[in-house]
Design brief:
Helix content is 76%, strand content 0%. It is mostly helical.
């Protein structure tokens, strides 16, 4: 399935799309290069342009734009792998199937609304709306867990909550590290 159809279907008809995804053999490399990378470029480029040229509160800087865009892309790419590892590692605790490929599917497709809404980073003062799209991504993950990780219905909510908490901690640590690296290299304070 092509990227546009997959993104449209996972957002508009997630229940049926998760069934279709469950029938596919996971290919981590193809998911990362053919799906995650193109979608993760949306907020990265938008952040670069938004912070580099539009700014917020009269603050613009080409270096800030580049650093923010690189941090966004790095966090997205590494974040998918780290979140998938967390989901996969936690699976046995919730009577779910351990399968890293499936976990990558679950995480990558669940992040879709946040990446698409990342276009709002063109106007940094609207960036909070992109975060709201991430909430829909949590709902997508909730719908996908039973189909992708074979999670029993009675354990889905707890598995989701524990996964989200751990993933958020990992995400903030990763973002902080990448921020120090990219902002340091580009001399942004």
């Amino acid at each position: 399935m092509n990227i546009v159809d997959r993104a449209k279907n996972i957002i508009r008809t997630p229940k049926t799309e998760w069934l279709a995804i469950a029938g596919e053999e996971p290919d981590a490399k193809q998911i990362i290069t053919g799906y995650v990378l193109p979608l993760a470029l949306i907020p990265a480029v938008a952040a670069m342009l938004g912070w580099g040229f539009v700014g917020a509160a009269y603050t613009t800087s080409f270096s800030l734009g580049i650093a923010t865009g690189l941090m966004s892309l790095g966090t997205a790419l590494l974040g998918v792998y780290l979140a998938a590892y967390v989901v996969d590692f936690l699976a046995p605790n919730f009577d779910s199937e351990r399968n890293l490929g499936r976990a990558i599917q679950l995480v990558a497709y669940s992040y879709t609304p946040a990446w698409i809404a990342g276009v709002l980073l063109l106007l940094p003062f609207l960036s909070w709306l992109a975060l709201l799209a991430g909430l829909y991504g949590i709902y997508l993950m909730y719908l996908g867990l039973p189909h992708i990780m074979n999670t029993p219905e009675d354990k889905v909510v707890v598995y989701l909550v524990v996964s989200i908490v751990v993933v958020l901690v990992v995400h903030f640590v990763l973002a902080s590290i990448l921020r120090m690296i990219f902002f340091g290299i580009l001399g942004v304070s």
